[in-house]
């Protein structure tokens, strides 16, 4: 689906649902997968690829295309279906997901995945990649934007802050962080494992323009994208998306048990039905 | 402070304008004929970049020490100082490479290769980005700055990375040849340089092929396989022994990965013994790479010479080379003892 003439919020919500259901389907092939980290960024990915980025799937090597770096590479399972859906490759290729010799592994390989702008998997590297991409754009006189999706736990990596400084120092206004602030890393809540708050102030203090919005409300997500400046201000830009890890499947929402998991039997069918019904209001577990 | 130590300190100082301020300025500014590998780095890249707009250069707060400021002076918009943030620099270079550039990023080998090892592997080699990571002041050439600033493990750490070319510059002209060949070389490279005062081996820019060793002396009694800073000392040792009728083949094995297997096989076939010479821990470097070839061949006397597997003493470089038998007399002594025992 690469024609944007009919894209509206309902379409983007449908594509976010598609990202979630494909994640569940592909995880079944693999036998294990990162459901909840992908569910938290489904709306962001949908808005980014179906409405925001300047891309032409028929020209994956177009030099002035916008770039995307999935720094939290474990959410690639949600990106592959989008790339296939947009026409970068035949969706049937995804049936090989993670099987011996497949192009599509848990963490993405740019040398194998058509339309993928950079490989990832080792956390903390992606923002530096984005810094380099933005610098190259400047040297080459191109005005593309570079979007980097970071996980919230990921920003404990020191290299992120090296890159934060560099983006400000080099005045990379065309560089945009998309922070998936889903609240959890593997061992628990980020604020208990390694606190990242006040993340808005931390980003701002490094010289970045910062927005903080609900990452599951697509109208809000689109408004945040619309607020992005054209890049010529020289200030790098960040959008902190407040999200819910595991969003869309009740049993996974803010659960520490589903960072990696595998649904089998009736559970698989139940989850697919739950996703098909669309997002329901989030109801946090009452505090004990 | 001895005179030599003063010179050491001054050589590192430089100035941000790219000028040197001390009396012995020529030894830092260098010329190709004087053999100053690190210090022709910036000027050679600047020259290449005049006709190749893919080339960009970066460093991590060492533009004076590695002379990348000679590049900056000519191409300021294609030069980036990342400050003391080597990991970010190497990964950002990969990002630039993904967008059509050919980045050369230079810092001390101890930081480029050892601190940046994961970035080199994961962000440069694995996606086969044409990033050239240049480790200057390698080995123990930093002398009394100590083991934090030495790189005696870099070859071992990086030669087992797939799709990464690992190559050592022998002298200034050799470095020029490597750089010229590197622009269109596929995939990522780690280029290991000395400190910029390495003695001359090549009077002219050699005809160099990446991955193909250069045979500098013919001989039949023994083959000495050396790399980088040790080629000159090895040649001098060979020439001294030749006067006693010992026939020594000398090979400049500049490319550590992929190794020139054919040259090692020829040495095993045509000479009676092999010894490797390197300014590197004897575990994991050139000697180990050659041993990986020899293990598949009929047995012959083989010896590795380099730095023993422990952190080295502090001292001026020349004193360290002498202490670890990596100057010409030291190499000769080790070769003679080896030949005596076989």
Biggest beta sheet attributes of chain A: 5 strands, parallel
- What is the CATH homologous superfamily assignment of the largest domain in chain B? Thiamin diphosphate (ThDP)-binding fold, Pyr/PP domains
User: Total number of β-strand segments of chain A?
Assistant: 7
- As for the number of domains of chain B, it is 2
Order of helices and strands of chain A: HHHEHHEHEEEHHEHEH
- Please tell me how large the radius of gyration of chain A is: 18 Å
Unreliably modeled segments of chain A: none
Low-confidence stretches of chain B: 1-37
Topology of chain B as a string of helices (H) and strands (E): HHHEHEHEHHEHEHEEEHEEHEHEHH
| CATH topology call of the largest domain in chain B | Rossmann fold
> What does the radius of gyration of chain B come to?
19 Å
Largest sheet strand order of chain A: 1-2-3-7-6
Supply the helix-strand structural class of chain A. alpha/beta
Q: Outline of chain B, from the CA principal axes?
A: globular
- The CATH architecture category of the largest domain in chain B equals 3-Layer(aba) Sandwich
Strand content of chain A: 5-15%
Main interface: chain pair and counts: A-B, 32 and 28 residues
The helix-and-strand class of chain B reads: alpha/beta
The percentage of residues in β strands of chain B lies in 15-25%
């Amino acid at each position: 689906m690469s024609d944007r003439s009919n894209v509206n919020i309902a379409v983007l919500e449908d594509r976010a649902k598609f990202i979630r259901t494909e994640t569940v389907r592909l995880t079944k092939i693999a036998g294990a997968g990162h459901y909840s980290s992908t569910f938290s960024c489904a709306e962001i990915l949908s808005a980014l690829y179906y409405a925001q980025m300047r891309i032409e799937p028929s020209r994956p090597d177009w030099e002035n295309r916008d770039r995307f770096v999935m720094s939290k590479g474990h959410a690639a399972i949600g990106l592959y279906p989008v790339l296939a859906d947009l026409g970068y490759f035949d969706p049937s290729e995804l049936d090989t997901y993670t099987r011996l010799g497949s192009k599509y592994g848990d963490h993405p390989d740019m040398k194998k995945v058509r339309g993928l702008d950079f490989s990832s998997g080792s956390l903390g590297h992606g923002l530096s990649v984005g810094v380099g991409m933005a610098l190259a754009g400047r040297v080459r006189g191109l005005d593309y934007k570079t979007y980097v999706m970071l996980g919230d736990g990921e920003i404990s990596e020191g290299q992120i802050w090296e890159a934060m400084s560099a983006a400000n120092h080099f005045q990379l206004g065309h560089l945009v962080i998309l922070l998936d602030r889903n609240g959890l890393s593997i061992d628990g809540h980020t604020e208990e494992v390694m606190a990242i708050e006040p993340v808005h102030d931390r980003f701002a203090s490094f010289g970045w323009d910062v927005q903080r919005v609900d990452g599951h409300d697509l109208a809000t997500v689109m408004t945040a994208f619309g607020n992005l400046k054209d890049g010529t201000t020289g200030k790098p830009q960040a959008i902190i998306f407040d999200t819910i890890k595991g969003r869309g499947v009740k049993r996974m929402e803010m659960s520490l048990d589903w960072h990696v998991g595998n649904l089998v039997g009736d559970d698989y069918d139940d989850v697919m039905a739950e996703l098909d019904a669309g997002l329901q209001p989030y109801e946090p577990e009452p505090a004990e | 402070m001895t005179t030599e130590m003063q010179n050491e300190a001054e050589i590192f100082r430089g100035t941000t304008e790219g000028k040197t301020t001390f009396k012995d300025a020529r030894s830092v500014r260098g010329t190709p004929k004087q053999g100053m590998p690190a210090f022709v780095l910036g000027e050679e890249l600047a020259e290449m970049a005049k006709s190749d707009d893919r080339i960009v250069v970066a460093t991590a707060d060492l533009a004076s020490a590695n002379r990348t400021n000679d590049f900056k002076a000519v191409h300021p918009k294609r030069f980036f100082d990342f400050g003391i943030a080597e990991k970010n620099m190497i990964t950002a270079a990969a990002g630039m490479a993904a967008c059509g550039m050919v980045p050369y990023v230079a810092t001390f080998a101890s930081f480029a290769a050892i601190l940046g090892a994961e970035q080199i592997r994961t962000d440069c080699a694995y996606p086969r980005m044409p990033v050239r990571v240049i480790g200057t002041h390698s080995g123990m050439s930093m002398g009394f700055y100590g083991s934090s600033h030495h790189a005696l493990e870099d070859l071992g750490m990086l030669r087992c990375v797939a799709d990464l070319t690992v190559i050592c510059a022998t002298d200034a002209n050799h470095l020029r040849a490597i750089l010229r060949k590197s622009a269109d070389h596929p995939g990522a490279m780690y280029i290991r340089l000395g400190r910029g005062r390495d003695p001359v081996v090549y009077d002219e820019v050699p005809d160099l092929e990446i991955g193909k060793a250069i045979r500098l002396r013919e001989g039949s009694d023994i083959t000495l396989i050396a790399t980088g800073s040790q080629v000159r000392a090895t040649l001098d040792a060979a020439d001294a022994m030749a006067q006693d009728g010992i026939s020594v083949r000398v090979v400049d094995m500049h490319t550590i990965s992929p190794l020139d297997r054919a040259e090692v096989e020829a040495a095993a076939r045509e000479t009676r013994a092999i010894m490797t010479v390197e300014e590197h821990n004897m575990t994991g470097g050139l000697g180990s790479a050659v041993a990986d070839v020899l293990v598949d061949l009929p047995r012959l006397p083989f010896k590795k010479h380099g730095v023993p597997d422990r952190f080295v003493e502090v001292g001026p470089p020349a004193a360290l080379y002498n202490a670890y038998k990596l100057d010409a007399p030291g190499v000769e002594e080790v070769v003679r003892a080896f030949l005596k025992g076989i």
